[in-house]
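At this stage, I put together one protein's amino acid sequence and its backbone structure tokens, which the following lines show:
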Amino acid sequence: MSQLNQCCNRKVAIKVPQVDEYHDLVYSQVKGRWDTQELKMSLLVPRTEQLKPAVLYLPGGGFTEANLHKLIQLKLVLAEAGVVVASATYRTIPSNLSAMVTDAKQALAYLYQQAAVYRIDPNKIAVIGDSAGGYLAQLLGTISQTPAISQTQVQSKQNQVAAVVSLYGFSNLLLMGADPKRPEFDPAAPTMLMLNGVSLAPQKPLMPAEITERARQASPLFKLHSGIPPFLLMHGDADQLVPLAQTKAMATAMRQAGLDAEEIILAGAGHGTAEWYQPEVAYLIRDWLLEKLDWDSGPLDLKQQTTL
């Protein structure tokens, strides 16, 4: 007979809060020539009374897709730790980098604007991303309070980032758009399409020097300055898509500049492989975030479970 059948009464300890999901929230509307594109976000909100930190997740997808429903296990670990987790889609190719950064800043601003509704502490909002989303997270951490690259008019105080987590992201576009078989940039590479835009109209080809300067201006590695928030940079040493050297270069440059950067390399992990979905990795990210956000939920201050 199983233990389940031997006992009729079982005491359950309350260790995590109830987590509510809000999906398909429209955080921005982009007017096109003939229609309006709605940019959506989902939220995981712990049902607790105290002010909570928040994390904005920017999904990767080679700049051709932005599936906000990825990394479910990690997001649930963060939510059960008392963190509000927002996942946002953003415009992708054929839109260019300016549109993507504008969307990321608008998503971040939405969390500030809705802070009272979801009990978010506006001083503790972090950004996390994987692959292309990791690049955007790094970029947002370096330019969030400036008008650089984006077209948004969002107030700088609504774009402050308290911490950045990059999972197998990249920091130097000078080394991400090149074809190893040729010395020049490959114009069909996703990073180059994102950087230079896509148009059906005849255009004057960009000179190599122009492309190089655009790539440099869009690279987090070359935008380091005092006041940048702490970075957690994670990569797999078996990644065949984004070189490990990208993470190592960013971590080294930040430390040399006196900035807070922690580098974690996962042995045997590839690009988005199963290693990234293990509880151990989620707990590493959770613990780092809670430390850098200087937040301890303490005893759970739960809301009534029958009402929201």
